[in-house]
Amino acid sequence: MAERAKRTVIAVGADNAGAALKNVLRDQLAAEPDVEVVDFGVPDAENNTAYPYVGRDVAEAVARGEADRGLLVCGTGIGMAITANKVPGVRATVAHDAYSVERSVLSNNCQVLTLGARVIGSELAKRLVREWLTYNFDPSSASAEKVALIDRFDAERSAAVPGPASAD
Question: Active-site positions?
């Protein structure tokens, strides 16, 4: 019996500036075999949820292992990348070209890709997302040691930051 390919879970999210492009990309991803999409919103440009809420929710789903990767869209992609990178264990990047998308995964093991709806058009975004799906980080690559160092810095920072104060 042939072994089935592992289903890839991708969490997607956007603010109102990126909602239309996120919806296009969500539908593209949902049409891929062996891809499951979890949409964290927002549904449309009329929704004014601030991007840090959506970016955090998607990044936390990735950090918890509920999603293999995250795709976030805002006006520039920058705010979403900054927000996602605040979640321990998550590496996010904004990328608007094929080489950056490739290197974000192969050299840096980024699990979250952010795009700017005001920076690139939907056809380029669709192409970049298609390519993004084809890349997987090689833990035996020359970059693995550097990624492990980033992970160590992240763990040290997380251990040094106190948790929220209790309400007791």
Answer: 74
Query: Could you tell me the CATH number of the domain that includes residue 100?
Result: 3.40.1400.10
Please answer whether residues 60 and 33 qualify as being in contact, where contact means their C-beta atoms are separated by less than 8 angstroms.
no
Q: How many angstroms separate the CA atoms of 149 and 121, rounded?
A: 35
Q: Dihedral through CA 73, CA 75, CA 80, CA 81, nearest 10?
A: 100
Looking up tokens 């959506």 gives 54
Contact 17, 75 (CB under 8 A): yes
pTM of the model: 0.90
Distances (CA, A) of 26 to 32, 58, 68, 146, 150: 10, 13, 15, 31, 29
Sheet with 112-116: list strands edge to edge: 35-39, 8-14, 69-74, 112-116, 92-94
Q: Is residue 165 part of a domain?
A: no
Question: pLDDT, tens digit, for every residue of 35-53?
Answer: 999 999 999 999 889 999 9
